[in-house]
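lol forgot to send this yesterday, sorry. struct tokens for the thing we talked abt
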């Protein structure tokens, strides 16, 4: 305990770190206050928040910190920005024009950032139309149409852009990655309600306090398992040739290339979830198709069929996303240019093949671990855990929480070590995490 208070004292003594932490807390407070401000012209009392607690709507509501169910001005959160960033990253892989921009340095990154913002506005406007039409009932609208729809689209779009601006300000003037922290705060905001709901359910006779304690222990175990997955790396030794420049010696040391077991991060789960929501969407548009047994099984997130397909998609997307984000040829070329080599492996094409083989071997267990984490919430629901609480047993939300916390703690520790203070731990160092990639030139957030 004394070590903990000494660390807090050291953090407070560093002026720059203290200001950054205070700025971060103030920006996050602004975001949380805004999440309770309803869209102008909406009667908040007439909104049924219960229908946004399940399925894709429940997931979106979690990422938005409850704003989605409250019809807040921040109802769409930062998800349109994340979607636009992912699209821009994929365009950077497939379209030569954007590939060229990525190689133009600062000017290219600025252009990609600008394209990302324009795309964010377009995506937000389209999602705002769908949100107003489907999530706000007629009895909750205080304005006549089409004035209400038009004004709400402008308000929701402005709200998302403001949240995006808050995230950028946190990154510049705060600690950690702003977009990641905003998503994390939205997820954590739902945790007390989930715990209270589960505690009330258990105490009222459904298992008693012992069952609740067992669930808490299980949650801690799942969090520890997720940390191991996020932190897991395979180090490849690299030897650099010795060079003498004047009176100084350069190189001649052995370093390591850390290849993460889950290099794709949370993206495979996001892509797989997007595909798994298609059957439910089809069923909502075609009532006759909803009676199809297979379609109903795929739409039920607790069914064996749904989770089997979900796990297979995660494994496939993990290989796909790792293949497009990790380039063994470029790594081999960079080593060759810097006169580095892997002991026992020839430089050039042989090195590229060796790195590719290592990545292929570690991606399989990484993808299986991601699939297990993704289906744990469904298993928890089958075992009787409340749906609001079961989401924290795995899936996208837990990986984001673990990743963002590790990344923020790693930045705080870096500030401490630069000022010659002890780190946050007695032994070892906190390592960063795999973030959700965004458009080139921006700091990657974690969704």
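and heres what i got for the seq, position by position
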């Amino acid at each position: 305990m004394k070590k903990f208070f000494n660390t807090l004292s050291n953090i407070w003594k560093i002026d720059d770190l203290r200001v950054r932490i205070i700025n971060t807390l103030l920006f996050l407070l602004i975001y949380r206050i805004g999440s309770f401000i309803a869209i102008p012209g909406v009667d908040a009392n007439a909104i049924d928040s219960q229908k946004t607690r399940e399925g894709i709507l429940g997931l979106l509501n979690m990422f938005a910190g409850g704003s989605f169910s409250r019809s807040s001005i921040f109802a769409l959160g930062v998800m349109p920005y994340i979607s636009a960033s992912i699209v821009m990253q994929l365009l950077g892989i497939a379209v030569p024009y954007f590939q060229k921009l990525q190689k133009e340095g600062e000017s290219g990154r600025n252009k990609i950032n600008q394209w990302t913002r324009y795309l964010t506005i377009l995506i937000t406007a389209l999602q705002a139309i769908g949100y107003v039409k489907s999530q706000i009932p007629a009895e909750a609208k205080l304005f006549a149409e089409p004035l209400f729809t038009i004004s709400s689209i402008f308000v929701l779009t402005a709200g998302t852009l403001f949240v995006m601006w808050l995230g950028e300000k946190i990154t510049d003037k705060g600690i950690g990655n702003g977009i990641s922290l905003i998503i994390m705060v939205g997820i954590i905001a739902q945790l007390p309600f989930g715990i209270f709901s589960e505690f009330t359910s258990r105490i009222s006779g459904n298992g008693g306090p012992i069952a609740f304690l067992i669930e808490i222990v299980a949650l801690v175990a799942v969090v520890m398992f997720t940390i191991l997955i996020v932190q897991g790396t395979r180090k490849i030794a690299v030897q650099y040739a010795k060079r003498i420049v004047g009176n100084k010696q350069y190189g001649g040391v052995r370093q390591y290339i850390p290849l993460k077991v889950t290099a794709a991060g949370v993206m495979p789960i996001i892509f797989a979830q997007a595909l798994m929501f298609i059957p439910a969407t089809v069923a909502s548009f075609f009532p006759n198709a909803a009676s199809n047994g297979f379609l109903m099984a795929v739409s039920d997130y607790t069914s064996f069929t749904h989770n089997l397909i979900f796990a297979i998609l995660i494994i496939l997307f993990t290989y796909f996303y790792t293949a497009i984000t990790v380039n063994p040829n470029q790594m081999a070329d960079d080593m060759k240019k810097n006169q580095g080599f892997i002991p026992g492996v020839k430089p050039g094409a042989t090195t590229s093949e060796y790195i590719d083989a290592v990545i292929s071997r570690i991606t399989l267990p990484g993808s299986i671990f991601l699939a297990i984490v993704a289906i744990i919430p469904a298993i928890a629901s089958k075992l009787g855990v409340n749906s609001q609480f079961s989401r924290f047993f795995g899936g996208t939300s837990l990986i984001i929480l673990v990743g963002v916390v590790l990344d923020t703690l790693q930045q705080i520790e870096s500030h401490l070590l630069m000022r010659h203070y002890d780190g946050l731990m007695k032994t070892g160092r906190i390592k960063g995490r795999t973030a959700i990639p965004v458009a080139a030139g921006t700091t990657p957030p974690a969704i």
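The domain at 193-447 is CATH 1.10.3370.10 (Preprotein translocase SecY subunit). anyway ping me if u want another try
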